[in-house]
Amino acid sequence: MGEGGRVSPESELAELQKFLREERTWGRWGPDDELGAVNLITDERRVAAAGLVRSGRAVSLSREFPTFPGSNNPRPAQHFMRRDPVMATDFYGIEYHGQASTHIDALCHVFDEDGQVWNGRRADEVITIEGASFGGIEHWRLGLVTRGVLLDVPRFRGELYVRQKRPVRPEELEEIAKAEGVKLSPGDALVVYSGRDRYDEEQPIVWGGARDEHGAIRRPGLDPSCVRFVRQSDCAVLAWDMMDVMPLPWGGIPWNVHGSIYAFGVALIDNCDLGRLARACAEENRYEFMFILSPLVVVGGTGSPVNPLAVF
User: Fold this and answer.
1) CA-based diameter of the chain, in Å?
2) Which of 75, 131, 167, 205 is spaced 20 to 30 Å from 271 by Cα?
């Protein structure tokens, strides 16, 4: 134990490593499975999600295509136009992983400390410059259509946004779900709003643009222990705006909450714009909705730019 009865960083690291190792769901759907937790989105789950649509109100969870450079976007997307006599065409080029683009992470995107992706495949064997031969985004070509549940952290705290010194903890997510009157079910899309839109409006450096004395990214977000909530909820999707807190409170593992990809096969939707959804949920007086997302079918891709939708 650390000072004052607190768990030491070393002990917390060891516990998280143990949890990610012992609770990983490799083999749950067979040794060759490339869908991961998306297997939980069954036809029945899609029908149930459609039943949540009452008013037809739709909300986009996507940020705008990031064509301008910024402190959190050093390599902006490219958009070139061509105009012919009777039509216009254009070209898109985007490096979507990072902190600026709304995108989905495929199962081949991140590896554990032993260099293994989802289901125990070795990254150095299945990932080449030509693409991934296992866990590519093309396996989610049917899209993700399921029940979405928003957990609104700023509303629960009575603050505008999550701050660096107080990352979101799993017990807080449990309390928020209880306060909103929602209970997560297997196959849900867990959507966590941390107030990134308001943070960017108020702070002189946009979210993800600050660096510490060692040059590491500083950003508020979810504490590494939130992997426990992700696993226990048995969600198929995690969509969020601030993502994992950085830098890591301790070293020793390559990822924290992003480890839910290789450990549990969860689809992560990074850099969502959730302010509109939070307002819609408050106005609709409900925090569940139909969640819809369709990635690009890029064979061997590590993900895809996306425009997730919530429909009430």
Assistant:
1) 74
2) 131
Q: What is the pLDDT of residues 194-235, one digit of tens each?
A: 999 999 999 999 999 999 888 889 999 999 999 999 999 999
Q: Assess contact for 100 and 76: CB atoms under 8 A.
A: yes
Domain presence at residue 90: no
**Residue 93 one-letter amino acid:** G
**Which residues constitute the domain of residue 31?**
3-65+102-311
Q: Is the separation of the CB atoms in 240 and 3 below 8 Å? A: no
Average pLDDT over every residue of 252-280: 94
Rounded to an integer, the average pLDDT of 110-132 is: 96
- The residue among 19, 107, 60, 1 whose CA lies nearest residue 275 is 60
pLDDT over threshold 60, residue 1: no
Q: Which residues pair with 82 in a beta bridge?
A: 89
Residue 3 has pLDDT above 60, yes or no: no
Q: What is the pLDDT of residue 303?
A: 98
The CATH code of the domain that includes 190 is: 3.50.30.50
Sheet strand arrangement including 189-193:
58-60, 309-311, 288-293, 144-152, 189-193, 237-240, 267-270, 103-105, 303-305
pTM exceeds 0.90: yes
Place of tokens 């198929």: 236
196: left (phi over 0), alpha (psi -120 to 50) or beta: alpha
Burial of 111 (0-12, 13-18, 19+ CB in 10 A): buried
How many CA atoms lie within 13 Å of 43's alpha carbon, on the beta-carbon side?
0
Contacts of 298 (CB under 8 A, 6+ apart): 136, 137, 138, 304
Pairing of strands 237-240, 267-270: parallel
Checking DSSP bridges between strand 103-105 and strand 267-270, what pairing results, if any?
A: antiparallel
Amino acid of residue 22: E
Q: In whole angstroms, what is the distance from residue 278 CA to residue 285 CA?
A: 10
Determine, yes or no, domain membership for 118: yes
pLDDT of residue 6: 59
Domain annotation covers residue 51:
yes
Q: Which residue has the tokens 């700023």?
A: 154
